[in-house]
Design a protein that fits this description.
The protein is 74% helix and 2% strand. It has 223 residues and is mainly α.
Length: 223
């Protein structure tokens, strides 16, 4: 898988920090401040390790499903459709990160039903007192409906490989890590950086550029 794809996934995770904090802020607060005291760093890391593990697992699953399209030449049109869909999603993600379009957020509605089933399980784990509990809570947190997550999952589906799909989602998860870990003393600085219009526009255009580049390759431009 091209390194640019991994870099794009990481950039989506990092540049979407404002969205991540908005979506996950309540959960981060609930996990960080329990019984009136701040949770230790080890538990914070365990929460996010569980969350990223869920992203990686989901990427492996959809990549495995997508690999079916690569088993036979008769499924070549499906391969092409998945490739084109992934490039379009990259473009839409880039426009969202640049603050120019919010179409990807429609995808969040799709995961609502799953989260309503998992949310009670998440609540039972609170208050978290141990690392295994923190890992379990983080793993459930990873299935919170998120348009950014679902958009990168489309690229994982088009990768046609469980390993590549997992790698894409791992890169995305690592990109979200700084913002969610830094909701404490560094939150203000990172939030200002992520909200800077120039930073958002530049990051969004880079991500969208990957999508346009992929479409150009598909149409044979630049070969």
């Amino acid at each position: 898988m091209p390194e640019l794809s991994l870099f794009a996934a990481f950039l989506v995770g990092f540049s979407g920090g404002v969205h991540c904090v908005g979506m996950c802020g309540g959960i981060v607060t609930a996990l960080s401040l329990q019984a009136g005291r701040r949770q230790p760093v080890a538990l914070q890391l365990a929460y996010n390790l569980g969350r990223i593990a869920s992203y990686t697992t989901a990427g492996a699953l959809v990549g495995l499903i997508g690999s079916v399209a690569f088993l036979s030449d008769t499924l070549y049109p499906v391969q092409q459709a998945l490739y084109l869909l992934a490039q379009v999603m990259l473009i839409l993600l880039g426009l969202y990160l640049a603050g120019l379009n919010q179409a990807v957020l429609v995808l969040e509605r799709w995961g609502g039903r799953l989260w309503t089933r998992l949310q009670p399980l998440f609540g039972r784990l609170l208050p978290v007192q141990s690392l295994p509990q923190a890992l379990a809570a983080g793993a459930l947190w990873g299935w919170l409906p998120c348009g950014l997550v679902y958009s990168v999952l489309v690229a994982a589906l088009a990768s046609g490989s469980a390993v590549d799909g997992a790698a894409l989602m791992l890169a995305f998860g690592l990109g979200t890590l700084p913002n969610l870990l830094a909701m404490g003393w560094l939150a203000g600085r990172l939030k200002r950086l992520a909200q800077d219009r120039r930073v958002k526009l530049a990051a969004g255009m880079v991500v969208a550029g990957f999508g346009f580049w992929g479409l150009a390759m598909w149409f044979g431009i630049g070969r």
